[in-house]
Amino acid sequence: MNRFLSEAPDPRALDPDVPGPDRGPLGVLLINLGTPDAPNPAAVRRYLGEFLSDPRVVELPAALWQIILRLFVLTRRPAAIAPKYAQIWLDRGSPLLVHSQDLADAVAASLGDRGLDVRVELAMRYGQPALSDALDALRVAGCGRILAVPMYPQYAASTTATAVDAVATYLARLRHQPTLRFLDRFPTADAYIDALHRAVRTHWDRAGKPDRLLLSFHGLPQQSVRQGDPYFRDCQQTARALRERLGEDGGRLHVAFQSRFGAAPWLQPYTQPTLEAWGREGVGTVDLMCPGFLADCLETLEEIDMGCREAFLAAGGKAFRYIPCLNADPDWARDFAGLIADNLGGWT
Question: How far, in Å, CA of 316 to CA of 106, rounded?
Fold first, then answer.
């Protein structure tokens, strides 16, 4: 007898009293990029191997890129990058993971305070906690409806789209898929712009206003934008919205792009050369924030607050002041939870 026909069906599929997908708790999946498990070359190599093998991240022919990646990148970069991670590592682990988990916990608490029956899980697109494990946890909790929230205010194929791809790959192996929504971007959402504005004003109330405020977004190859990626537009929309909120101080705000990788031209102006030029021009005090990152990480703490600080001061600048990411700031967590609740509309 055919073994598939002889197997007894799952009794839950036949029991009319088992809750359907329109009941039970709601699921919220927060997705950030990822981080090595430890600040050592082996862990960095594992992380970079997964991250840089994603065709959304490096858009070169796979066969060619894998040769370059395995023979050159992964044999050199881990040893160079690991000490940088060691400089920023926290007692609880990677700053990106620590701040993202604290934000996820605070969002869950805030949603609960709103009377919502919601389960919140954090996942990393690369590394741990694995996206598949987080989705498994939501399904085990009975979440038949899940809102996936990539933690990138500005949409890019190399961040948001690859998170969507990973969720779709997980769903492709399921017979009974949960109902799914995505909050795929929020570059001008009131909750987000309010939080950025509050961070700037709080800093200025304490330390005084700078000569210039630089918003440093993660870079992207210019070719990606020419091919239709909306990332540059989203970044400019965020900058415009914050400039308007700053009112007469909006003229202090400028935009640049950091973290260039490879030889191809990326979005410009580049952050560090901009700061160096300002230092030579005699710009005294610069405040810098990285609004494209919701959680502090290697790119903000080491590249910006250490490397760019040193470059600006060496070029003649007088004071460099880094404004931390929103992280798990209580007011931001509450407002982020409100944004998420709005996107759960119709389910609640």
Answer: 41
Cα dihedral sign for 110, 161, 155, 264? positive
Nearest to 96 by CA among 255, 251, 297, 275: 297
Classify 255 as helix, strand or coil: strand
The most distant pair of C-alpha atoms in the chain lies apart, rounded to whole Å, by: 85
Cross-strand bridge partners of residue 145: 26, 179
Cα 339 to its chain centre, rounded Å, is: 16
Strands in the chain per DSSP E: 26-34, 118-126, 145-150, 179-182, 212-218, 253-258, 285-289, 319-323
Q: What tokens were used for 105?
A: 């916990």
Amino acid at 200: V
Query: Would you say 94 and 299 are in contact if contact means Cβ atoms under 8 Å apart?
Result: no
Predicted TM-score (pTM) of the model is 0.93
Place of tokens 């040193």: 310
What pLDDT, in 10s, does the model give residues 127-184? 999 999 999 999 999 999 999 999 999 999 999 999 999 999 999 999 999 999 999 9
Quote the tokens at residue 99.
Answer: 């701040």
Residue 205 CA to chain centroid, in angstroms? 28
Tell me the three state secondary structure of residue 28. strand
Amino acid at 110: S
Query: What is residue 348's predicted lDDT score, i.e. its pLDDT?
Result: 78
Give the integer Cα–Cα distance in Å for 204 and 233.
28
Q: What's the DSSP call for residue 147?
A: E
